[in-house]
Structure formats: C-alpha cells, structure tokens
Write a structure and sequence with these properties.
This protein is an alpha+beta fold. It has four domains: about 10-245, Heat Shock Protein 90; about 260-375; about 390-415 and about 565-675, no CATH class; about 430-555, Sandwich (Immunoglobulin-like). The protein is built from 19 helices and 27 strands. The chain has an eight-stranded mixed β-sheet with strand order 5-4-3-6-2-1-7-8, with helices on both faces. Strands 9, 10, 11, 12, 13 and 14 form a six-stranded mixed β-sheet that branches. Strand 18 (about 470-480) and strand 19 (about 485-495) form a beta hairpin. Helix 1 crosses helix 6, helix 14 packs parallel to helix 17 and helix 17 packs across helix 19 (about 655-675). It is globular and about 90 Å long. Residues about 120-130 and about 415-430 have low confidence and may be disordered.
C-alpha cells in the first residue's frame, strides 16, 4: 500500500491568506496595515518585561542601490529572540512543535516561527494561528523572507530563509553560528550589520511597492499610531521608522486616549461588570463627541482593544442605527480575563472580532447601550421615551408581560447574562478593596418614594482590607434617569483604611424639586497615586479602583416591570421607525413610534387598546424569535445543541430562508396564543 503526504499548492494558500487580509482591512494600504500589525504584535509578545521596559521595535527601509534592490526589514530588542530547538529537518521541527506542556512549547520560538499554521501562543492570545509569516512572504515580490536572531537562551546566532519554491511549497533554510554569519554577509554584504543584542530581525528583498509608498509618504506612521496607540501611551513603547539610516520615533496618537483632545464632551465609563456574569469586566469605554470637527478616517468608530492592539473599529452607525458615526469616536478596553475571552473571538487575520460568538455578543449589546446613552446626553439623538397616559401605559405593560412570557418559553438569556464563572470560595482581590453601600433604604420595598418621604443611607463607605494604605478620591452623586441632570454631588479625598468614613448623605428628603420618575445614586473610587497594593494588585494614578456602585429610587411612581423586554413609546418623525428594538442596560427595549401614521390611526379608534396590545405583541414576537435565532447560532459555534433552530437552518446563509423559518416558528406560537 502506498502512503504519502497529500501534495499541497501552498502558493494558492498564500494567495487566499493575502486576499483574506485585503477583504478585512479594505483600504488602499491594507498590506502595510497587516504587515505592521503582525510584525509589532509578534515582537511585543516576545518582550522580556510585561510593561515593555527596554523593548524597542524598528521598521526600516534601505533604498535600492547598484549592489542590491530595496530592502524592507524590522528589528526588535528587549525580546527573547528565536529561542528553542534549531531544527535540522522537518522531523526535528515537528518534534519541537509537539511538546506536551505549554511552558515547553513557549520556549520553542524558532520552530514555531519556521512553521505554517502552528503557533506557540495560547488560543486566547491574539495572532495565535501562526499566519504572520505568510503576510511577510506575500509582502515580497520574490515570495521569500530572510531572518536572523541573537537568542537569549544560549546566545547563539541563527540566520535563514523562508520561501515559496518552484514546486509551490513553502521551504525553510537555516544555519547557526559562524556559518550563519557568513551566509548573511554573502547575501547582504555590508547593507545589514551584525546583531548586538538579543532579538529578531526579518528582511525582505524587493518588497511590494505599496509598502514602500506607505513608509515614505507617512502613511505607515499613521497606521502604527492608530493600531498601537494604547502601548505607545500606557507604556511609552519605543517604535521607530527608519529610512536609509535616518530614524524617527512614532509619536503618540493625537486622538487616543480621548483625553488628548481636551474636549468637554468626552466620557470614560470605568469598569463595567456584567451582572449575571461578574467574571466578565469591561475595563473602560471612552467616547468623545467632536461636534463640527472632522474625525480622521483611521479613528472613526470605536477601537476594540485586545492586548494593547486595535483589532477592529466598530462603526457607530451600525451599532445604534443612527447616522451619527462621523461625530463620535472612542475605544473599549477589557480586564485581563475578558481580554483572553475576546481574543478567542478574534478573526484569523486579527483584523476583526466575530461578534456572534460569546462573550463578544454580550459586549456588543453593552456597547450599543452605552453609546446610545452618550448620544442622547449630547442630543445627537433627539428621540426619547415619551410620557403616555395611564391607560396607554397599562396596554404597554400587558403586551410587555405577554412578550416576557414568550421570552421565557424561548429561554432567551437577555443583554447582560451569561454563565457565571466560579473562582473558588474566597473573595477576589477586587472585593477586598471596595465601596460598601449597605444602608440604602427606600420607604417601599420596590424602590418607590413619594414626596414628603425620605431615602436613607445614600452614602458609601470605602473599605480597604489590605495592609497597604491607598490615597483615593471617592465621588458620589444623584442624577435623574430622565435627562441625566445631577441633583446632588459630593467628593472626598481619603487615605484608606485610616480614613474609613461615609461619603454622601445620611438622608435625602424628597420635596417638590424632585420631579416624578427614576433617580440613581452612584459612587465611584479612583486612586490618587501609583501604588502596589499586593503581589498581584497595583493601581496607577487616576485609575478606577472599584467599579461604580449604584442604587435607584422612583419618585411618585412604581419602578418598571423587570423582564426580558421593556416597551417604550418613542414618538419622532423618522420614517424608518415604526416598531424596532434597542439594547437596554439589562433588557431589550421594544420601541414604537406613536407619530407613525399606522399607530396614530389605531389610537383614534374605539378599540385602540386591544389593537395596540396585539400590534405590539405580534411585532415584538418577530424580534423574540430573531434573538432566539442569534442565541442558537452562538450555541452552535460553542459546540452546543441549539434550542429552537437547527444547525442546518442557521448555516443556510440565504436571508429569505432564515426569515421564513422565524415566521414559521412564530406562527406555531401564535396559533395557540390566538385560540
């Protein structure tokens, strides 16, 4: 019996990978963006210091001469270099790639660099699919890259080449020691100097014209700025561009973080914890409204940051279905655990996030809610919840309850839910340094308070159970949920645990200055110094120490019913809007436009209550089944069984077929509902 490895046309594989990058980046300098992303990301991952101390990266271009064509390359220092086994053949390489433990594999940097579709990074790391080398090969007209490295583990020097040969296969050549030095000198002569420090260098003869153009016209600098703004700002990362020996450090981004603009209309959310999955924490959502000023193309949208790199820019217009994307920009960052989970949702080119996966889908819903609230605050969206009569509100509540019954039948999970991650019985480090809001109390258990009554315990107590003290700023305020107006505000600088005092008000009397509606008491705590609290916990000056805590109360009205859906009237003159859905903080909001002619005509007839209730429920049921379809798709991607829609139905990309399946499922439910 004959047995052999299946022949592969790796030239086609290379072409497919390049087309994949081009399709994701979608601008003229897509190759330059992909090249710098992969190069810097690989280098940053190989750094000695977690904060990038002594790390540097240089992207250089040597112009064409009589002796050689143009040379493009990059070099890093403060990194491990290409450590591990120096393979003699394919078997040696595969043996190194197949080591059992993660610790062993992480040391095998050279075998992984030489391989295709292998990576020594954990699945939760960006660039964990090993595609970076292919973009380097594809960026060269000759489909070849040279590399050399001074290794930190044994101080050995290696030099080699990865190239596409005439048999359409990717081949590798490698030497070490004096032979490697001699090879490099023969090929590059005096154009490339010796390496003096541990690190890695990659070299391309005859790079493609568009990369040379991006370096010489300043576009590459702008690409690096907007991709790596976080490590440039946070760690003062040293990234240089060099042309024929003249070098320049890439400056800090002029637009991120948003505080750089010094515009009043900007906000930072601080840490956001998901109520039903507290292990997932957004570190910060920063947003800025530039008014009449233009946002540069590379900064439009919301930068999604994973491990220091901008992976994707989410279009604001697509998030909230409003034409305001040219007015708002910003960034979202994640705590370490959520960052690892988001890296698992990253596309193969690490140029996008697959938002249908969990927990990315939950993050997207939260972003929609936060951005909409920001847009409403600065009146970029004029529509808001309209006050309705008691009778009309009663109809809304009946339809809302019917929709929530359907949501329970469909086992919908909501906008802020997920599986809780158990991490042992002991309290986390975050909880040992926290804000306590234990004494908050309203006259009625549901949070209602009437004029003449009081809300008690509207204060927080900062608690520090560590032996190390910390200077903090504690802010508390009360604001109206209707318009965001701050009713009361107080802040204090404290040293805790020495000054463990109450910040806020022992009692708030509700008088005529409080209009009817919902109010929120909110508090946050920020560090006033750079301080290491414990071996695993440290804070920078200005950093949020503990995610904001809040309580709500309702003046002269009962709080809204809790459930998967909430119904609101949003009267406006936007012809696109009849009945639609928005993501709330903890539920979906089914919005209806009472200014729409169809609804206006219903409200004029004698039977308006029954007609409006039926309309809201039946239209809402479409959205309920649509959400179930999305959640079933997530279950399938996680290798689990869907609840309603089959794998075959969901994987059919034909929109008409999917819509028909939603209609069929909905019809079956309505058959029983209308009996």
């Amino acid at each position: 019996m004959a047995q052999f490895t299946q022949p592969q046309n790796q030239e086609r594989d290379l072409q497919a990978i390049m087309e994949g990058y081009e399709g994701k980046v979608r601008h003229r300098y897509w190759l330059a963006e992909a090249f710098q992303k992969d190069a810097i990301q690989n280098s940053w991952d190989a750094r000695f210091s977690s904060k990038g101390k002594d790390w540097s990266f240089t992207l250089f271009l040597i112009s064409e001469t009589r002796e050689h064509p143009p040379i493009l390359g990059f070099l890093d220092t403060g990194t491990h270099g290409l450590t591990g086994t120096i393979p003699k053949d394919e078997k040696t390489a595969i043996k190194a790639l197949s080591k059992k433990t993660r610790e062993e594999r992480e040391k095998e940097r050279l075998p992984y660099f030489l391989s295709s579709n292998w990576s020594n990074k954990p699945k939760s790391a960006i660039g964990s699919r090993g595609r970076g080398k292919m973009i380097f090969i594809g960026a060269n007209k000759n489909k070849a890259v040279y590399f050399d490295s001074l290794r930190s583990d044994d101080n050995q020097y290696v030099f080699g080449r990865i190239f596409l040969d005439k048999d359409k296969a990717i081949k590798v050549e490698i030497d070490s020691g004096d032979i490697a030095k001699k090879k490099r000198e023969e090929i590059f002569e005096n154009a490339i100097p010796h390496l003096l420090d541990s690190g890695t260098r990659v070299l391309l003869f005859n790079p493609r014209r568009e990369i040379i153009e991006a370096i010489t016209n300043g576009e590459m600098e702008r690409l690096i700025q907007h991709t790596w703004w976080e490590i440039l700002s946070k760690y003062n990362a040293k990234i240089k561009l060099e042309i024929d020996g003249t070098s320049k450090f890439v400056p800090l981004s002029p637009f991120l973080p948003v505080e750089k603009i010094e515009i009043k209309e900007s906000e930072n959310s601080g840490k956001i914890e998901f109520e039903k999955n507290p292990a997932l924490r957004i570190k910060n959502i920063s947003l800025c409204y530039l008014g009449d000023k233009d946002i540069p193309e590379y900064y439009k949208g919301l930068a999604v940051q994973v491990q220091g790199m901008m992976v994707e820019r989410l279009a604001i217009d697509n998030l909230i279905a409003e034409p305001i994307g040219s007015k708002i920009y910003g960034a979202v960052t994640f705590d370490e655990y959520l960052e690892e989970r988001m890296a698992e949702c990253e596309g193969p080119e690490h140029c996008d996030i697959i938002w249908t996966r969990s927990p990315a889908n939950q993050i997207r819903n939260k972003l929609k809610y936060i951005i909409r609230k920001f847009a409403e605050k600065y009146k970029l969206i004029e529509e808001s919840k309209q006050h309705v009569s008691k009778e009309q509100r009663g109809v809304e509540i009946v339809a809302q309850n019917e929709l929530n019954t359907l949501a329970k039948t469909l086992n919908l999970t909501g906008t802020a839910t997920g599986r809780r991650i158990r991490r042992g019985k002991e309290r986390s480090s975050v909880e040992q340094l926290r804000l306590s809001i234990a004494d908050f109390k309203t006259p009625y258990e549901n949070g209602r308070v009437d004029r003449g009554q009081s809300v008690k315990g509207t204060y927080v107590t900062p608690i520090n159970e560590y032996s190390t003290s910390l200077k903090v700023l504690v802010k508390t305020h009360i604001f109206s949920q209707k318009n965001g107006k701050v009713i009361k505000h107080i802040e204090k600088e404290l040293k805790i645990p020495e000054e463990q005092i109450k910040v806020g008000w022992s009692e708030i009397k509700i008088d005529k200055s409080f209009e009817h509606g919902g109010y929120t008491f909110r508090a946050e705590m920020r560090s006033l110094e750079d301080k290491k609290i414990s071996e695993k916990l440290s804070y920078e000056k200005g950093e949020l120490v503990y995610h904001p805590v809040s309580r709500t109360f309702y003046v002269e009205e009962d709080p809204p019913e809790k459930g998967f859906f909430r119904i609101e009237n949003r009267a406006n003159n936007d012809r696109r809007k009849f009945i639609w859905i928005e993501e709330g903080d903890k539920e979906y909001i089914l919005c209806y436009n009472s200014s729409h002619p169809t609804i206006k005509s219903i409200l004029k007839v004698k039977e308006w209550k029954e007609l409006l209730r039926t309309l809201l429920f039946k239209e809402g049921s479409y959205f309920a089944y649509g959400i179930r379809l999305t959640e079933d798709k997530v279950l399938i991607e996680e290798g689990k069984k869907p609840l309603i829609f089959t794998k075959e139905e969901i994987e059919n990309n034909d929109f008409q077929s999917l819509l028909q399946q939603v209609a069929f499922c909905r019809s079956s439910y309505l058959w029983e509902y209308d009996k």
